[in-house]
């Protein structure tokens, strides 16, 4: 289910973050974060996690033309959803 998938992703991210905060090196996990990788204000990308939290946004991995087109096609709806989320949270 979608709820179980989101819970698993959150648990996996939390586990890796705690591992990194406790000194483990080179922990990488994907997360939906504020980003300049695309025209959207937020995007899911791999993050390098370290003892200080998010050390670096590793950006969008190399994509083939088809994948790049899918990302471009998703932008209008993604930006619309981000706008709705920001408006909802500012109420």
TrEMBL record:
Matching InterPro entries: Lactate/malate_DH_C, Lactate_DH/Glyco_Ohase_4_C
Record-level Gene Ontology MF annotations: L-malate dehydrogenase (NAD+) activity
The keyword Transmembrane is assigned to this record: no
GO cellular component terms attached to this protein's record: mitochondrion
Domain Lactate/malate dehydrogenase C-terminal: from-to ranges: 1-88
Sorted UniProt keywords: NAD, Oxidoreductase
Official protein name in the record: Lactate/malate dehydrogenase C-terminal domain-containing protein
